[in-house]
Design a protein that fits this description.
The protein is an alpha/beta fold and 282 residues long. The protein is built from seven helices and nine strands; from the N terminus they run ββααβαββαββαβαβα.
């Protein structure tokens, strides 16, 4: 299934991949006021190209066509910044400080700030337009991921879900809990082991390390998509995998560099390893 806002390709294996932040089609009703190049630096640029081999190998695939700065599919609908609205938000709003940490950084369900702490809007948003974004983007994206995982699990007795991201080479001065931190080549996260088995997560780390990458297993990493769909006790394993953008692109121009092809080859070897792995035997 492919719509104007969500692309979904069915798989035949236990593996499902999704890319929630690589979308680059900016809807006309976005009506943002900051510079487009500033907004575009928030994209996980080219992630969909890095993994475009996956459907041919039988993996399910879901990607956002819309940008995360328009609405972030990797946030819960309760992670809402009520200061954005010109009226009261009628839906539930999270109160837990940890859950709302991204909102404080201006990057909740609806982003308030672009990179560099630049305000995205010079206007207040209406409840109706945000509800429309949820209905047209967030809901179909999550439906596609949930359906792909349910199908994989029903057919094979287990599922492995790889939530695919790209991160800046250096953590931003704003919008990060560790500003200025130099990132590793890969970061693997399972929300403190709650979304995937430890042996499976370690398998990813070992494989990528064997290819010469600096890999950090950051167990507390992972946001809404792995939280919502990872249930390792039910053999539903979800892992967030972040790759350093400097490995394959110029972060200023967004152009792919000479590292793109070898990185893609290594990611294909990782996907093939996961296709050969039954986490019930680890």
């Amino acid at each position: 299934m492919t719509s104007s806002l969500v692309r979904s390709l069915p798989g035949t294996t236990p593996l499902v991949l999704d890319s929630p932040h690589s979308g680059s089609a900016y809807p006309e009703d976005f009506a943002f006021d900051c510079a487009l190049p500033t907004l575009r630096r928030a994209e996980d640029s080219h992630v969909e190209k890095l993994y475009d081999f996956a459907p041919a190998l039988g993996a399910g695939w879901v990607e956002a066509i819309f940008p995360s700065s328009y609405i972030d599919a990797n946030r819960d609908t309760a992670e809402i910044d009520v200061s954005l609205f010109d009226e009261a938000w009628p839906e539930p709003v999270a109160t837990d400080a940890k859950v709302m940490s991204k909102v404080r950084f201006g990057k909740g369900l609806i982003w308030r700030l672009a990179e560099g702490d630049e305000p995205i809007y010079q206007r207040k948003l209406s409840v109706a337009e945000v509800q429309a974004r949820i209905a047209s983007c967030w809901v179909p994206y999550h439906d596609a991921v949930a359906n792909a995982i349910d199908t994989a699990h029903a057919c094979h007795g287990y599922s492995i879900h790889l939530n695919c991201h790209a991160m800046p080479a250096t953590a931003l001065s704003q919008g990060s809990e560790f500003p200025g931190e130099a990132h590793a080549d890969f970061v693997v996260g399972t929300r403190d082991g709650s979304t995937a088995s430890e042996p499976l997560a370690q398998l990813l780390c070992t494989h990528l390390t064997s290819l010469g990458y600096r890999v950090v297993y950051h167990p507390n990493k992972g946001v809404e998509l792995v939280r919502r769909y990872g249930e390792p006790a039910e053999q539903r394993h979800s892992i967030q995998l972040e790759v350093n953008r400097k490995l394959y692109m110029n972060e200023e121009t967004l152009a792919m560099n000479d590292g793109f092809a070898p990185l893609k080859t290594h990611l294909q070897s990782l996907v093939q390893l996961l296709l050969q792995t039954d986490p019930r035997t680890l």
